[in-house]
Design brief:
This protein is of the alpha/beta class. The chain has 16 helices and 28 strands.
Length: 581
Amino acid sequence: MRAVETVLRRHAEDSDRPLVEVTAEDGTAVVHSYRDITRAAHALGERLAARVLRAGAARVGVLCGDSAEAVVAELALLALRVTGCPVPPGASAPTAATLLADVSAVLADTHGLALLAAWADHPVLPEDCPVVPVDLAATASGAYRVPDDDRDWICKILPASAGPVTRVGIRAHAVAAHLDALRAELPAGAFARCAVTVPLATLAHQVAATPLAIADRGCLVLPPAGVPDTALPGWTAAVRPTALAVTPPGAVALIGAARTARREGRPVPAALFGTPGVPLLWCGTEVPHPLLRECEGLGLPVYAGYGLAENTGAVSWNTPAARRSGTVGRPLSHVRTEIGPDGELLVGGAGLAVSLTPKDPDADTDGWLHTGVRAAIDADGFVHLVRPERARRAGEPLTPEIGRLLYSLVRSLRADCVVTFDGTADGSLVQLAAGARANGTGQVVGHVPDAHRAADTRARLTAAGLAPWAEVRHAGLHDLGRAPAPVDLALLDCRPDLTLPALTALEGRMRPGTIVLALGSAPTGPYLDRVRDGADYLSMPLPVGAGAEVSIRLTPATAVPRPAPRPVPGPVTPTPQPSGE
């Protein structure tokens, strides 16, 4: 925190230096200066100190959207040396209740107040916990000040990066080491205008983007509420960022705009970012390697890394000075890494967070953070992540149990519409299409982000005589909202961090009774919170293969007409049940 606090001490009262710039829906920019934000933070701190805080014992929840108020709340807690507990975007009521179980108060902007109202039937706050609205116009009695002491303290409590909902405590000195290591690898002023397209409550912004923008005496630039990914290049061209977090849908939008600019003979940087050069493009979430390679080919290098809350953010990162495609970069200077005997990536060093989960007496106490991720480190120190052993490699056949399950579901449902995401290259689409052919009706649509895997899947379907029964789309998450509807069966066989976004993207295409099947290592953490909270799904685990979660949609989505049954492409003959390949 030292770099952040140094800037705040010097510039808190600057009225002509922008700290937060919000783009309104009409495209105009609403600018809040350092003085505006810090004065509002000081006023909020005075209200908290007077009403709800007990010295040395307070934890305060933060329920804010992507707003200037979220930054006000952040700086108020920093000045008070109070632990903040931000609720991540998309959290269910049970998850929020776990994260806020022991807070003394909750800070909320308009978005947060709306969430609390929506959760009225599922209380998430401790008894008698006050909700304090964050007011940008509040008047303070004086200027914002941060303490001069350099004591260590748990400045944030964040959800763990993997597994069930558990919490970790982020130490101020760990954040300082994390920021110092990142800044040592960055060009000067890289975050002077940091365009924020990943929610502010996520790990990337809690311990990286927001602090780095302040450390560079810079400005956070927020898009209009609800801006679609397809509009991202137009917005970035208008705001002229020096740094931009890239998500998978955002990368796809940038790729499309870059292709158009090249076709029209326009310089790509000017067309996409309004600048003669490309800003620092970094990953706020994991971006698949095929997308990274495509960005690279268009002159849009994206700096991929690997991080988790248990290590206060980034473990390793590709940087402008040292980047290797296909890796997650070299470990940062404050991080120690080692590959364990079973190939697991082990992490140590100054960035380790404090576990707030009661210790298992039989737990490993070797001093390393066991990430649960298989990895390799090459001779130059770059980290290569490897998919977990229990997850199938692309192109491997399904287990016989999963093959029979998919075939049986299509046959028993007589499904008119089956939609899959990501995993169709390993044989699942073959099983589903075989079931549709045996029924004599139905449409199977597979969404495969990787072009080579999509082509391979089409070839396999053609060789099996199943091409008329299945369509393979070279498409990603952003295309799921355009899937046929209503969906009778959805198969999610993708990375764990993509399972919940894929479900969310498909929900508008579902009907009551839609079955969602998540395979392998995918159904973990936030995904299970969503389908098991009892509000919209009836869900249970299935002990088949490496594990599966089957969920039945209970509530209606936006009404969508059912298409006419797909015509039979030729004479139908009985099809024997597949055995797994």
